[in-house]
Design goal:
Layout: H1 3-9, H2 15-23, E1 27-28, E2 47-48, E3 51-52, E4 60-65, E5 96-97, E6 106-112, H3 115-122, E7 130-136, H4 144-149, E8 166-171, E9 174-179, H5 186-193, E10 198-206, E11 209-210, E12 219-221, H6 224-230
Parallel strand pairs: 6-10
Antiparallel strand pairs: 1-2, 2-3, 4-6, 4-12, 5-6, 7-9, 7-10, 8-9, 10-11
Helix pairs in contact: 1-2
The structure holds uracil.
Uracil binds next to helix 5.
Length: 236
């Protein structure tokens, strides 16, 4: 792909703006030698204003989603995309969240511009476990783990029962829930179905991936090792 198109697709500007950046000498190699629009160089050999380029198409990012942000691009309130440089919203192909977390759910959220990868992650066949830590408004009754594991729990307005899900009780108001599906408001609706109410919900793991030391609002690109962890198993 020609350099102007490649850089414009990463959201740095229109093709016209990127052509101007070349003429201004802002696009260089790592040694500071000015590059020209028809040079043939690899992605990692390009600098803009001395900074490496954003990851190429096919990227997968992990965000520690804070409370109060929605996973939509249209919401009038705060959206997760605001937590990235504005050019990330101008990329082609576009960056999307891999599934959604509710506005008030915190924790591990993946984003990608790779549609095939997105489908592979969310497809029920992949059986990628998502682990949620829930704080509850009422004491657990004691029968929730059995009900969630039964594979027979039918949520209101759903046609098919939920796949078996594992619940580990931490104490009377705290539990760890492992889901392999991603139905609408699933964790909150599951606890509502057993007479409880979720006060806070935090996703700690997707597959074998966890947030590591990412603070709320921080994000990082994922590499091949992370991908192996994503499709691997969460810790026992
Ligand atoms: N289940 C929910 O209820 N909300 C989320 O954000 C994720 C899973």
């Amino acid at each position: 792909m020609r350099l102007v198109k490649l850089i414009a697709n990463l959201g740095y500007g229109s093709r016209k703006q990127v052509a101007l950046m070349f003429r201004e000498g802002r696009i260089t190699d790592p040694q500071g030698e000015v590059l020209y629009a028809d040079d043939k160089v690899s992605h990692d050999q390009i600098r803009i204003d001395n900074e490496p380029l954003d990851p190429p198409a096919g990227m997968l990012l992990m965000l520690h989603k804070p409370a109060g942000y929605t996973c939509s691009t249209k919401d009038p309130g705060a959206v997760v995309y605001e937590l990235f440089p504005p050019r990330y919203l101008q990329r082609s192909p576009v960056l999307s969240t891999v599934g959604r977390l509710d506005r008030d759910t915190t924790g591990l959220l993946l984003l990608t511009d790779d549609g095939a990868l997105l489908h592979r992650i969310v497809h029920p066949k992949s059986q990628i476990a998502k682990i949620y830590a829930a704080t509850l408004a009422r004491d657990l009754r004691g029968d929730e783990a059995q009900i969630f594991a039964s594979g027979e729990l039918l949520l209101e307005s759903e046609k098919s029962p939920l796949a078996p899900a594992a619940l580990e009780v931490v104490d009377s108001r705290h539990a760890r829930l492992t889901l392999t599906e991603g139905r609408y408001h699933q964790a909150r609706r599951m606890f509502a179905a057993v007479g409880n109410h979720v006060e806070t919900l935090h996703r700690s793991h997707v597959g074998g991936l966890d947030l590591g030391d990412l603070a709320p609002g921080q994000w990082r690109p994922l590499d091949a090792n992370d991908m192996d962890r994503l499709f691997g198993r969460p810790p026992a």
